[in-house]
Predict the structure.
Amino acid sequence: MADTGTTGQTRSFEADVARLLHLMVHSVYSDKDVFLRELVSNAADACEKLRFEAIAAPTLLNEGGEPAITLTIDAGARTLTVEDNGIGMSEAEMAESLGTIARSGTRAFMDRITEKGEASENRLIGQFGVGFYSAFMVADRVEVVSRRAGSDTPARWSSDGLGTYEVGAADLEGSPLRGTRVILHLKEDAGAYLEAHTLERTVRSQSGHVPVPILLREAPDAEPKRIADGAALWTKSKSEVSSDEYADFYRTLAGGFDEPALTLHYRAEGLHEYSVLAFVPGAKPFDLFDPDRAGRLKLYVRRVFITDEAEILPRYLRFVRGLVDSADLPLNVSREMIQESRVLAAIRKGVSNRVLSELAKLSENEPERYLSVWENFGAVLKEGLYEDEARRDALLGLSRFRTTTSGAEWRSLKEIVAAFRENQDAIYYATGPDAERLAASPQLEGFRARGLEVLLLTDQVDSFWAAGGVEFEGKPFRSVTQGLADLGTVPLAEGQEPPAEAAPEVGDFVAFLKATLGDAVSDVRASERLTTSAVCLVAPEHGIDRQLERLLASAGRLGAAGSKPILEINPRHDLVQRLAKLGDGEAHLREDAAHLLLDEARIADGEPPENPRAFSERLGRVLGRALN
């Protein structure tokens, strides 16, 4: 295909693009086919955007024919051209779209590769779509000629991927009437993409179900051959679609090579009619926790692409990929007005409920398969426990937890409640960044002695939803680090010996600790929680959980000062009893010991001593006395 262009302005890529291009040009990937999927996907999006804009301006379709994507091989020139007759780009749009990175997910991809190093790049490629820039995996020069629909002025972009690009006006002669032509000057090792059967196989396997016909021309003057019919997969019945076709469509849509863990394909009929084809990915996206990541369901109206920013699913289902095609939404309203549509509100509710119900069915019928979904997306689903009160019961039913008795196994709340001990009236939990450290917390000792199962919650969102008055089957959630433990009514587990009586002097020692520590704590009291440790810290009865307080403090949302903790001591611990019996002549030792006990509790809670220098000096004095 003839080169079309004039001399344009040379510009430098933005830093993020230059970094990505370096990875594309200087790294060797095991699967380069991804570039074709990305270019075809971009071309299909351009055709869909044209269909949408033509609703308000039908004249945009006057020239250029019906939307289609054409691949053209020129073996003599060693070029492969991917051309669409979609919406096209102006010169300004070309510079913006091809000179910058707009999607944070691409940055996440680069960060992941940089973090893991070149050795892991072969594994990473194919797990994340890298868009237009993937062309530089197979081409040492890429030219783009485009004319925006309705415009008389074509534009040309060109780059060798080495840091700069050229952009400017293109000659009218030979430019597309509308749409975009991407010309790839193939590298020496990319000759396979000049073979028709390679292109046809790749397109059928990766892009065979895009809603735009795909044509293949084996030479610039040859008749094009249709290799994909552009039939919308979601308009077919489930019985007409194979699992391989679903997987191929998912990979085209999601830009990955993994298998979908769950496929939802159905047509809703009744008050509102719409089709849904959605997938739960089999692998976790790199940008799952990116604050700018939104839902990834595309919205169509009668097979016309409208937007991929319709926010059909709540944020805690943002990992679901797919589309909704409505028969009821009007085509002649703006994308912004569609967001306020009552029809879309009903679709949102219906699709969200259906996704949760299908996940529930999967958890019941194929629990092992569901656990892989939970391990990938459980932390995101739990955001709904905090955000979506209306669906909280459904989300609690889907939730799985590791506990003090389950080891590495996941447990459902139904299983946990079924194993309640005599007189147990709450679901106990502990929050923190690490399950292993949580399991060793001194606050859990009394619960373990009574055989009480405690949830080990390690995701940040756990501290928020668990403290929000949540209940499951009438059982409240209660933090093991908050308020009185109230364990006296629960009998000890089999084989546990009743604790010995505390020395009478311990009561006076508690009062001494309270006076000595002053404002450092809100109270000092004997503990039912502790069996082997001497001390621990807990939150006041009506205060916030200790881990939640730390999270709020780190985010600057705690105000001037948080609540002071309560120091609980084990009245039967040998150290406590011996300290309680010290006489007035040991006043200095008792005072040092009081502060060291508080610092010991802080360290056991994962915090440093409040005053490291004073801690070191007190410890030195106590050790010196012991050595003398």
Notes: The longest helix spans residues 342-365.
